[in-house]
């Protein structure tokens, strides 16, 4: 079986349409919306088009869970025991079990919300964070950055379910949130253990994570202002092992990502 | 900003208007805000003196799989729904309903169920009933009373504005959620 599977070889049936995340981030309409007085961009039940925005996000969660499963799955196979200890692979296998369950839950939530599998396009930027040849980079890309984003997204959806009185959505998101906190902790623990005597490798891994966190901010999709649909979940990230400094850095990265996306989109509109 | 073919959209609109029974004598004026992408789906309809004015966000017609590309089947349903509500306003029992910008989210959700139910009965319109049910529940509540009213609204072929208000009263009485501040949906998405 092949090792280091590239994203273009991910198994998908005809329901799934692949798209580039940069097309979505750089959509010139984003900047036009930003110039209008549409109020808060937060995903809240009383906001305009809340139902369809939630459905769209739910489908994104669904495809994200598939990619997280694929990412963790690859890590159980792509490395020998010298590169990645058996105990690490066991943790990744346990994570695959969790992500499989999340995929099933996401499908059921899609049914609940009236969203079909493949209704929206899929961008593979999440899996691409798991394509690093160094298992430490994968842990940072998947378990800290991707799962960290999942904490932010699930917390937003949980609050959406709570505010809207949707008992199914709130319960399911809370259930999956608990797993994501564990996944982040696994990544943090293994990062510390495998780089205990190699601070340069640790710093390279954290630098990789910063790049992934910036990409996962999706040009302002995640942040701590009213312009960000998904809010940074500080309390839950803290529970997952992120330090205050790390969370502050992610917040700052999000601001930078939003500013850069707006500047690039503005140039695209002008041309 | 979008790759919609105006002639294709117009042809879909004409088919939708015919199939929901808009008389030929009624003039329809359409305004599409291309800057509002999926999933910002929103529409507003006003009607008077034999004319229907319909406003749509571009997201109403956009493919969820292919960015900025027209999705014909969903477009026909969105157009049909808007024109049906236009007919409601002209002579379908909603002549005394306030403008779309002044009705509440709950009232609009009730009207949308009534509208989609009629489109489903007519046939020829792609319908995502679970989506309609979910967006209705967001506005009207996740409880047995709301679900029962949903079924009644979906299956009825006759409703008036007064009847809609009575429905809303029953839904409010059964809704345990705290009252939210006034929705700014149409005011927010639609540029004056």
Distance between the termini of chain B: 20 Å
Strand order within the widest beta sheet of chain A = 1-2
Mean pLDDT of chain A: 90
What is the helix content of chain B?
Answer: 40-55%
The value of Rg of chain B in angstroms is 16 Å
Low-confidence region ranges of chain B: 181-187
Query: What is the assigned CATH homologous superfamily of chain A?
Result: Ferritin, core subunit, four-helix bundle
CA-based shape of chain A: globular
Overall structural domain count of chain A: 1
How much of the residues of chain A is beta strand, in percent?
A: under 5%
Counted beta strands of chain B: 3
Assembly category? heterodimer
In helices, the fraction of residues of chain A equals 55-70%
Level-1 CATH class name of chain A: Mainly Alpha
**Tell me, what's the shape of chain B?**
globular
The unreliable regions of chain A are none
| Largest sheet features of chain A | 2 strands, parallel
Keywords:
A: 271 residues, mainly alpha, Ferritin, two-stranded parallel sheet, two-stranded parallel ribbon, 4 strands, B: mainly alpha, 3-stranded mixed β-sheet, 49% helix, globular
Please, could you describe this protein's structure?
The complex is a heterodimer of chains A (271) and B (192). Chain A contains 10 helices and 4 strands; from the N terminus they run βααααβααααββαα. With 271 residues, chain A is mostly helical. Chain A has one domain (42-270): Ferritin (Up-down Bundle), CATH 1.20.1260.10. Chain B has one domain (6-189). Chain B is mainly alpha-helical. Chain B is globular, with a radius of gyration of 16 Å. In chain B, β2 (43-48) and β3 (51-57) form a beta hairpin. In chain B, α1 (6-19) crosses α2, α2 (72-91) crosses α3 (105-122) and α3 (105-122) crosses α6 (161-174). Chain B has a 3-stranded mixed β-sheet, with helices on one face. The chains are: A mainly alpha (271), B mainly alpha (192). The interface between A and B is large, with 37 and 42 residues.
């Amino acid at each position: 079986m092949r090792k280091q599977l590239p994203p273009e070889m991910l198994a998908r049936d005809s329901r799934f349409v692949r798209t580039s995340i940069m097309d979505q981030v750089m959509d010139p309409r984003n900047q036009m919306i930003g110039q209008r007085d549409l109020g808060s961009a937060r995903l809240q039940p009383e906001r305009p088009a809340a139902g369809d925005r939630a459905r769209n996000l739910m489908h994104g969660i669904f495809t994200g869970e598939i990619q997280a499963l694929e990412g963790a799955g690859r890590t159980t196979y792509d490395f020998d025991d010298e590169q990645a200890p058996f105990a690490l692979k066991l943790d990744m296998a346990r994570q695959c079990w969790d992500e499989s369950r999340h995929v099933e839950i996401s499908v059921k939530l899609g049914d609940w919300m009236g969203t079909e599998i493949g209704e929206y396009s899929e961008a593979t930027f999440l899996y691409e964070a798991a394509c690093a040849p160094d298992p430490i980079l994968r842990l940072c890309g998947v378990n800290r950055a991707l799962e960290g984003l999942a904490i932010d997204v699930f917390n937003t959806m949980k609050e959406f379910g709570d505010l809207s009185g949707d008992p199914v959505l709130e319960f399911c998101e809370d259930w999956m949130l608990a797993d994501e906190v564990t996944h982040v902790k696994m990544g943090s623990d293994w990062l510390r253990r495998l780089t205990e005597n190699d601070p340069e490798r640790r710093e390279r891994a954290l630098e990789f994570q910063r790049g992934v966190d910036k990409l996962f901010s999706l040009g302002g999709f995640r942040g701590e202002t009213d312009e960000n649909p998904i809010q940074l979940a500080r309390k839950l990230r803290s529970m997952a092992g992120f330090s205050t400094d790390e969370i502050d850095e992610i917040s700052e990265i999000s601001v930078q990502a939003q500013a850069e996306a707006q500047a690039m989109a503005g140039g695209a509109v002008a041309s | 900003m979008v790759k919609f073919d105006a002639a294709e959209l117009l042809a879909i609109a004409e088919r939708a208007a015919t199939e929901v029974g808009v008389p030929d004598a009624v003039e329809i004026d359409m305004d599409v805000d291309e800057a509002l992408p999926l999933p910002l789906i929103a529409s507003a309809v006003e009607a008077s003196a034999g004319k229907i004015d319909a406003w749509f966000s571009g997201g109403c017609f956009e493919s969820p799989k292919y960015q900025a590309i027209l999705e014909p089947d969903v477009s026909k349903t969105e157009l049909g729904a808007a024109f049906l509500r236009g007919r409601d306003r002209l002579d379908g029992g909603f002549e005394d309903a306030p403008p779309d910008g002044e009705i509440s989210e709950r009232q609009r959700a009730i009207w949308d169920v009534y509208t989609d139910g009629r489109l489903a009965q007519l046939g020829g319109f792609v319908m995502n009933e679970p989506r309609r049910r979910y967006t209705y529940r967001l506005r009207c509540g996740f409880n047995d009373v709301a679900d029962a009213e949903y079924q009644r609204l979906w299956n009825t072929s006759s409703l008036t504005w007064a009847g809609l208000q009575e429905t809303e009263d029953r839904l409010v009485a059964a809704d345990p959620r705290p009252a939210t501040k006034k929705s700014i949906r149409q005011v927010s998405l639609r540029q004056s």
